[in-house]
Design a protein that fits this description.
With 177 residues, this protein is an alpha+beta fold. Helix content is 27%, strand content 19%. The longest helix has 14 residues.
């Protein structure tokens, strides 16, 4: 019979404490340190927890949305080390030490958010947090994007309200000339 699990290595290299049961990934936890919106956060989570679960359930950041859970709608998009990532499928144990930015980290006075409001680029706004984060990554990497660059950056996003033309116009309005 296998020995009861007390402690094993975490896939990310961090410490893991298991329950006194047969080894099972569902029973293991990892202690992780993440920088979320500029603030260091240490969390103990199951090794199979997604970034979305940690952001919403452990850290109370409700701006990141659950849409499909299959990387098909983009509602869960956040920035991990300045790159857009689907939070619904990214296992958090692979992100120890990463810098994560959510829509809450932008602030109400962010020019991109102001432009989206000015262009009335949201109807229901369910998809908007993910779109904002992809647009932010694009503008940080390419301050003067072409319309085609914006369309490519927004390709993973589904807006059921059909507000894409206004969203693209809003992003263009904050692009550097």
């Amino acid at each position: 019979m296998m020995e009861k699990l007390k402690s094993v290595g975490c896939p990310s290299g961090g410490p893991v404490q298991g329950k006194d049961v047969m080894p099972s990934i569902l029973d293991e936890t990892c202690n992780l340190t993440l920088t979320v919106n500029g603030r260091a956060e240490t969390v103990t989570v199951p090794t199979d927890a997604t970034l979305l679960e940690v952001l919403r359930e452990r850290l109370g950041l409700m701006g990141t949305r659950f849409g499909c859970g299959q990387e098909q709608c983009g509602a869960c998009m956040v920035l991990v080390d300045d790159s857009p990532v689907f939070a619904c499928t990214r296992l958090v144990d692979s992100l120890d030490g990463s810098e994560i930015r959510t829509v809450e980290g932008l602030g109400e006075d962010d020019p991109l958010i102001a432009a989206l409001l000015e262009h009335q680029a949201a109807q229901c706004a369910f998809c908007l947090p993910g779109i904002i984060m992809s647009a932010k990554a694009l503008l940080d990497r390419t301050p003067s994007p072409e319309r085609s660059d914006i369309l490519e950056a927004l390709d993973p996003h589904l807006c059921r309200c059909g507000a894409h033309p206004r969203i693209v116009d809003a992003i263009l309005s904050v692009a550097q000339p």
